[in-house]
Design a protein that fits this description.
By secondary structure, the protein is mainly β. The chain is built from 1 helix and 8 strands; from the N terminus they run E-E-E-E-E-E-E-E-H. Strands 1, 2, 3, 4, 5, 6, 7 and 8 form an 8-stranded antiparallel sheet that branches. Strand 1 and strand 2 form a beta hairpin. The two termini are 28 Å apart. The C terminus is likely disordered.
Length: 166
């Protein structure tokens, strides 16, 4: 168990939380009163089976940030599940729900409402050109601008690979 201002970095992904419990493959789940020292695996390392993050969980990957109250990282299924007032942002785009499940293998993400049925998933998505320039487009030209050709921005290229958080 790690506590305080916990920060975990792997590649371009950063996890921050208040407490982090790490479960290893060699853990037998016993609740005995004696704590044994961690023993390295065959390659000098212990394999992590899962991570349980609690308290202000924040996962950042490139320009995507996901926040929630709890996080579960399951290494066997290669999934990340955030729960409790989940907010996912990428630039000005925002998704809100009660739970976020990300399959890191396929890159597929799912935001869910609460089980009570009263909650909703909310999303705000802005076109890439609106994120870049908040001013009006295609406004009628007047005066000195009348002789200029209208210039259009080409859309931002879209990624064809898995997006990571969503």
């Amino acid at each position: 168990t790690f506590s305080g201002s916990v920060k975990v970095v792997q590649g371009d992904t950063t996890l921050r939380c208040k407490t982090l419990d790490v479960f290893y493959d060699n853990d037998e789940g016993s609740t005995g009163s004696t704590l044994a020292a961690a023993k390295p695996g065959p390659a000098g390392q212990s394999r992590i089976r899962r991570l349980e993050a609690n308290g202000g969980v924040e996962v950042t990957q490139k320009d995507q940030v996901a926040r929630g109250e709890k996080g579960l990282f399951d290494m066997a299924s290669n999934t990340v599940t955030l729960s409790g007032n989940v907010v996912v942002t990428q630039g000005q785009n925002v998704l809100r729900g009660e739970r976020l499940v990300v399959d890191l293998t396929s890159g597929v993400s799912r935001v869910e409402a609460g089980k009570s049925g009263n909650g909703r998933v909310q999303g705000l998505f802005l076109p890439s050109s609106a994120q870049d320039k908040p001013e009006k487009k295609n406004a009628p030209s007047t005066g000195a601008d009348a002789g200029r050709e209208s210039q259009k921005e080409s859309p931002r290229p879209r990624s064809t690979g898995p997006s990571g958080l969503y």
